[in-house]
Amino acid sequence: MLDHPEVKIKDQRTTYNWLPDFVYGGIDGAVTTFAVVAGVVGASLSTTIILILGFANLFADGFSMAIGKYLSDKSQHELYNKIKEIEFKHLKEKTAHEIEEVRDILKLYGFKGKDLDRATKVITSNPEVWVDLMMRNEFKMPHESISPAKGALTTFISFVLVGFIPLFAYTFSPILHLSEKTAFTATSFATLSALFLVGMIKSKFSTRNWLVSGLETTLIGGVAATIAYFVGYFLRTLV
Predict the structure, then answer these.
(1) Rounded Cα distance, 196 and 211, in Å
(2) Cα 145 to chain center, whole Å?
(3) Predicted TM-score (pTM) of this structure
(4) pLDDT tens, position by position, 207-223
(5) Which of 22, 18, 46 has its CA nearest to residue 163?
(6) Would you state the torsion angle of the CA atoms of residues 38, 42, 47, 50, taken in this order, to the nearest 10 degrees?
(7) Which residues lie closer than 8 Å to 56 by C-beta, 6 or more apart?
């Protein structure tokens, strides 16, 4: 016979994983800033305009993304806690119904007969475990490694760091003595290489091959920059 052991649920939110947010911010930072640069180059505007628009986008869009990330994670965190609180109330107010729901869930995992009775007893003897089971299976809301503030900060830092790559050659062109054509060539190579690297890292969060993920991310950045370039070129002909 199984006793009713005290089972503790490890709160995974205490171990924030920064890498997904870094990848998320890095891709967006590189793509959007590269697109700004390509659009300005397509319009045959000066390096000064590239730097003004590039840095304005870098910090304004980075801040916007960070705020969006913070609010999204905060809302998700609050929703999780709200539903969890309701479930704890249901344990007291609708105990029989909640026990039956546990039995239904365990049946899906192959429990039956005495094993089902014992497993139900063990789970319902610990409110934390009980609610965790309901959150995961009834609401599809497992514990998440979410930290709104850390997520926002990581996204902003990544956006600025990786997003600066398309501006690097133009920022230091007076020191490096680069022509506009050489600066754009160097920018394109550096940015697409960075996107490929970030895409490789992104494959760690999926079952996709690292090469496919890297090439896909590079392609997205390349297409976005190409569109921006031709839009800039087209608008130049109208002015």
Answers:
(1) 8
(2) 12
(3) 0.80
(4) 789 899 999 999 999 99
(5) 22
(6) -40
(7) none
